[in-house]
Specification:
This protein has 87 residues and is an alpha+beta fold. The chain has helices at residues 5-10, 72-83, and strands at residues 14-19, 36-41, 55-57, 64-67. It has one domain (5-83). The radius of gyration is 15 Å and the shape is extended. It starts with a helix and ends with a helix. The model is unreliable at 78-87 (pLDDT under 50).
């Protein structure tokens, strides 16, 4: 899904940015650097969702393969603005 922080704020939804942290026994990778992980506090009303993306999975139906329409270049281009609270 794609949505904007400004729209979330208008709906009273808080986004808290945190550094990457270990999950269970899996440590944070060395290549995460200064990565910031946004945590959305609360549910997402349908009105905030601008777009849905299709997730493709492997032949087993479980293994993640890709998100159609989202590339690393797309994410890198938007990330700095989004992390600063921009639209």
């Amino acid at each position: 899904m794609r949505f904007r922080r400004s729209t979330l704020r208008k709906h009273g939804i808080v986004v808290r940015d945190e550094e990457a942290k270990p999950v269970g026994d899996t440590p944070v990778g060395n290549d995460w650097g200064e990565w910031v992980c946004p945590h959305i506090l609360g549910g997402l009303p349908p009105a905030v969702v601008e777009k849905e993306f299709v997730i493709t999975r492997g032949a087993d139906g479980r293994a993640f393969v890709a998100i159609v329409g989202v590339t690393e270049a797309d994410a890198d281009e938007r990330a700095p603005k989004a992390l600063k609270g921009g639209p």
